[in-house]
């Protein structure tokens, strides 16, 4: 029985998509290893510099070394988690833009464009979700099917909303663009979710505002009054430099911390960037 070498070669030969996936996996491993090495280098360098500076201030090598080691460990863990934090932030930006892109897709299909043409036009927008669709379009042009390209987008972005959009787009492509009721319903749900988040943040903002006013205006005034009264009736020893440092440094730092916290709690779609 003769064995057809050409058939065996075709069966054993990897598809273009499999080769791309394997290459991407290899690149990700190399990038991860490189990131770990860079994190170690940066944390050690900054830790040594911090140790020298702290040693000059404290004039205690053992204490400064102990503090520097703890600082270096925390810095290394932070640098190690930095890509994950960037990915989470990118995911939030993509989710914030999803309703706009879905509505744009609906309008393009209503205008009579084909599915791929509508997808391609939506990918030319400036939103983060449009940039992800641009990668999907590029993958399709390279030979991937629409389902494969959307699945790869789901792997890049760990988001339930993105998966729902991908599933609706894949279903729309499979069954034709005549029935877009599922995509309309999804767009309405995404907009409703953002509206609910906006109302929840507005109610929390009242509390945040009260805390900020208290710390930025009331607390400094009460502190100065306490110092003036306490210096007459109680033994409170504060030098003028210490009082000035607390007023012009400590309270503003607390204000900045509160503003940063408010900014982190603000939904991305309300920031307007």
UniProtKB/TrEMBL annotation:
The keyword Cell membrane applies. Keywords: Cell membrane, Membrane, Transmembrane, Transmembrane helix. GO terms for cellular component: plasma membrane. It is a multi-pass membrane protein. InterPro entries: ArlJ-like, T2SS_GspF_dom. Residues 107-222 form the Type II secretion system protein GspF domain. It is found in: Cell membrane. Pfam families: T2SSF. The chain crosses the membrane at residues 39-58, 64-85, 205-229, 241-262. Signal peptide: none annotated. PANTHER family: INTEGRAL MEMBRANE PROTEIN-RELATED (PTHR35402), TYPE II SECRETION SYSTEM PROTEIN GSPF DOMAIN-CONTAINING PROTEIN (PTHR35402:SF1). This is Type II secretion system F family protein. It comes from Candidatus Iainarchaeum sp.
């Amino acid at each position: 029985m003769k064995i057809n070498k050409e058939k065996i070669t075709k069966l054993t030969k990897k598809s273009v998509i499999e080769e791309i996936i394997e290459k991407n996996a290899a690149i990700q491993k190399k990038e991860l290893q490189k990131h770990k090495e860079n994190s170690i280098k940066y944390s050690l360098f900054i830790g040594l510099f911090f140790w020298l500076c702290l040693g000059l201030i404290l004039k205690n090598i053992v204490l400064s070394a102990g503090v520097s080691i703890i600082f270096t460990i925390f810095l290394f863990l932070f640098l190690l988690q930095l890509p994950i934090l960037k990915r989470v932030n990118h995911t939030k930006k993509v989710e914030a833009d999803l309703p706009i892109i879905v509505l744009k897709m609906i309008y393009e299909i209503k205008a009579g464009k084909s599915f791929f043409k509508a997808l391609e036009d939506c990918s030319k927008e400036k939103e983060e979700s449009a940039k992800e669709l641009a990668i999907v379009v590029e993958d399709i042009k390279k030979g991937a099917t629409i389902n494969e390209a959307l699945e790869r987008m789901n792997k890049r972005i760990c988001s339930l909303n993105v998966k729902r959009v991908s599933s609706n787009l894949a279903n729309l492509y499979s069954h034709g663009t005549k029935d877009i009721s599922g995509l309309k319903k999804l767009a309405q749900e995404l907009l409703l979710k953002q509206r609910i988040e906006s109302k929840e943040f507005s109610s929390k903002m009242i509390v945040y505002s009260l805390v900020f006013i208290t710390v930025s205006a009331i607390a400094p005034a009460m502190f100065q009054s306490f110092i003036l009264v306490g210096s007459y009736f109680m033994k409170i020893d504060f030098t003028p430099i210490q009082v000035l440092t607390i007023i012009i440094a400590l309270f503003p730092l607390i204000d900045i911390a509160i503003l940063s916290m408010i900014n982190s709690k603000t939904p991305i779609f309300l920031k307007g960037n």
